[in-house]
Amino acid sequence: MSEEMAISQFEPVGDLTEEMEAFRGFLKTRGYRVTKEREAIAESILKNHDHFDVDELFLSLRAKTPVSKASIYRAIPLMIESGLLAEVYLENGHMHYERVYGREHHSHLRCLNCHRIFEFSAPELAQVEKRISRQEGFKSEGHKFEIWGLCSACQAEKR
Ligand SMILES: [Zn+2]
Ligand SMILES: [Zn+2]
User: What protein residues have CB closer than 5 angstroms to ion ligand 1?
Assistant: First the structure.
């Protein structure tokens, strides 16, 4: 798969000023320092159109701003707490993340063969979330829905 294709699947990222301000504001209110390292990690994450794990982020950062994997592991929970990033799925024991700030809620299809991720929105899922929560007396704050299997290209290949 070409680089262009991978990117075209996802929404383009505009100006990052708002996101970066949100992250700095979050760090300050929590009493964390705004360091160059944290900013570099956040910027790289926010520029990412795709779903990624720590190893991928580490490699993409290495060329520009070398940071340790340990710093990335420490920065990720902060970015999740600040509402900029979310855990998406676990693959081979590695959590994959995506930026969520300003993006619409969506779900994922995950191909077990080529490891591509496809995004989709299904408003019915929000209704299921509401109905189940009401039934169980639960105050929900979100839901995750994932379909895994073989994408159409991989099915065609296997035929
Ligand atoms: Zn596939
Ligand atoms: Zn996604």
Answer: 111, 113-114, 151, 154
For ligand 1, the distance from its centroid to the CA atom of residue 67, given in whole angstroms, is 32
Total domains, the chain: 2
Same domain flag for 98 and 108? no
- Gap from CA of 12 to ligand 2 centroid (Å): 13
Looking at all shown ligands, the one closest to residue 99's CA atom is 2
Parent domain of 78: 1-103
In the reported structure, the alpha carbon of residue 110 is separated from the centroid of ligand 1 by a whole-number distance in angstroms of 8
Mean pLDDT per block of 10 residues along the chain (159 residues) reads 39 73 93 91 84 91 87 93 92 91 89 95 95 97 94 91
At residue 31, the pLDDT reads 94
Q: Which helix (H) or strand (E) holds 57?
A: helix 54-62
The reply to whether 125 and 68 lie within a common domain is no
- For residue 122, count CB atoms less than 10 angstroms from its CB and return exposed for 0-12, middle for 13-18, buried for 19 or more: exposed
Same domain assignment for residues 9 and 78: yes
99 and 109: one domain? no
Identify the nearest ligand to the CA of 154 by its number: 1
Using alpha carbons, select from 78, 6, 94 the residue that is nearest to residue 38: 78
